[in-house]
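Batch job 17 of 40 flagged for manual review because the log was empty.
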Amino acid sequence: MFTNKKTCCFFGHREVTHNIKPKLTEIIEKLITEDGVTEFYVGHQGHFDGMVYSVLKELKAKYTQIRYTVVLASMPDEHIKELYGEETLFPDGMETVPKRFAISKRNDWMIQQSGFAVCYVHKITGGAAKFREKCVKKGLRVTDVLN
């Protein structure tokens, strides 16, 4: 498994209840310009993931050296292929993971690949808070959108 510590993953609640796009854009730009991050991994389960994806897509025009990938928790269907095209990755071994554990397993995979994480956590329960804590325990440099 290839690990690039100049890689960033994202974790956040499905619903975005704050106007965070400007702050999210600022955070990602700093990661690119100040920390040399060139690789970004994002899921596709909710509004936060969708917002991250749109920001990365916009920033790619300005920072051509970056790459962003939508990391899938299940085999891609036609809808996913239409939305993201070749910008997806289905990690090896995921095909054997039971559906109810797939998102957690995918998130663990993203953490293992990364040196940085950007998190949108506004409540202490749920997957976003759990995976933010995992990032901290694994030693990733975590940036919180809500600060």
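Reviewer: the log was empty due to a logging misconfiguration, but the result itself is present. Helices lie at 21-33, 47-62, 78-84, 99-113, 127-138. Unflagging and moving on to job 18.
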